[in-house]
Amino acid sequence: MEMTTTTPVTMTAGAISEIKRLMEAPEFDKSQVLRVGVKGGGCSGMSYILGFDKMEEGDEQFTIDGIPCTMTKSHGIYLMGMEIDWQDGLNNRGFTFTNPNASKTCGCGTSFAV
C-alpha cells in the first residue's frame, strides 16, 4: 500500500464534518477507512463510490483533515481533482461530486462519462 503526499480528491468543510460525524457513531468499525472510487453503471456509464471499507492490497492511501482515505490506484485517472461536498437542503441531501474529468454527468449527479 502506497501513501501519497497529495490528495487525489478534496472535500469541502461540509463533507468533512458529515464524514467525521459518521465516524463518531458508536457502531462505526474503526478498522475501516473511507473508500473513494468508481464502478461501472449509472445513467452516464460510471458511478461514484463513497463509503467505509477495509484497505486492500494495492490501494493508494491518503488523509484529508484527519480522515484516513483509500482508493484503488487505477481509479485515480477518473477522480484526480474531484471535489466531494455535503448538501443538506430541502431539495437535496447527500454527498455531491464535482469532477473535472467528467465529459458528461447525469441529472442525479452520481454518475458520469469520461
From TrEMBL:
Core domain: residues covered: 9-109
Read off the lineage from the record: Bacteria, Pseudomonadati, Bacteroidota, Chitinophagia, Chitinophagales
Matching entries from Gene3D superfamilies are given as: HesB-like domain
Question: What is the protein's name according to its record?
Answer: Iron-sulfur cluster assembly accessory protein
Pfam families in the cross-refs: Fe-S_biosyn
Q: Which domain of life is it from?
A: Bacteria
